[in-house]
């Protein structure tokens, strides 16, 4: 007939444990996507002389933005995809606009390999387009993969069930 409060609490605990495990699986998948984006991005810079000119000129920045998107998804697996989309756009645009600031201390950081990869060197409007395309492609891939896997992007919490309050 009805369920006892104890059985409901056990079900909630089981659902939370299952949710925690699936969060870690999702994080692992997004970490793999981050690493693939890094490898492809570094490859596009390293082997630029062997790639078509369009790929060599544009893919590195787009892949950097992909890495940022998947990195945010790795951190925020329980949030909507749009949060990572807008968050990564905001982050990438902020980094690009920060390149207008050319003080000696930050330029010395940008002169290092890691600093140059993370902070860039100088402002380019074209980079904003590259970032937007990279993030849009990442978002579309993410959304498509989630649909194929039958994952809903809206999170619901069992604690929100009004019948138990």
Notes on the protein architecture:
The chain has 165 residues and is an all-alpha fold. The protein has one domain (5-164). Helices cover 74% and strands 0% of the residues. It contains 6 helices and no strands. Helix 1 packs antiparallel against helix 2 (53-75) and helix 3 runs antiparallel to helix 6. Mean pLDDT is 85; it is low at 155-165.
Average pLDDT over all residues: 85
What can be said about the biggest beta sheet? none
Q: C-alpha Rg, in Å?
A: 21 Å
Question: H/E element string?
Answer: HHHHHH
Identify the overall geometry: globular
Identify low-pLDDT runs.
Answer: 155-165
Helical fraction equals: over 70%
What's the number of domains?
A: 1
InterPro entries: DUF2809
Protein name: DUF2809 domain-containing protein
Keywords: Membrane, Transmembrane, Transmembrane helix
Organism: Paenibacillus terrae
Question: Which key phrases capture this entry?
Answer:
165 residues; mainly alpha; 6 helices; 74% helix; 0% strand; globular
């Amino acid at each position: 007939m009805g369920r006892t409060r104890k059985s409901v609490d056990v079900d909630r605990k089981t659902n939370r444990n299952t949710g925690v495990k699936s969060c870690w699986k999702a994080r692992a998948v997004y970490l793999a996507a981050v690493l693939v984006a890094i490898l492809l991005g570094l490859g596009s810079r390293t082997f630029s002389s062997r790639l078509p000119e369009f790929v060599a000129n544009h893919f590195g920045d787009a892949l950097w933005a992909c890495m940022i998107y998947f990195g945010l998804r790795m951190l925020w697996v329980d949030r909507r995809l749009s949060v990572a989309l807008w968050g990564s756009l905001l982050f990438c645009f902020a980094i690009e606009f920060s390149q207008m600031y050319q003080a000696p201390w930050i330029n010395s950081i940008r002169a290092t390999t890691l600093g140059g990869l993370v902070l860039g060197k100088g402002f380019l409007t074209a980079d904003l387009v590259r970032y937007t395309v990279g993030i849009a492609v990442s978002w579309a891939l993410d959304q498509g993969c989630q649909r194929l896997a039958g994952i809903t992007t809206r999170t619901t919490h069992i604690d929100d069930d009004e019948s138990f309050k």
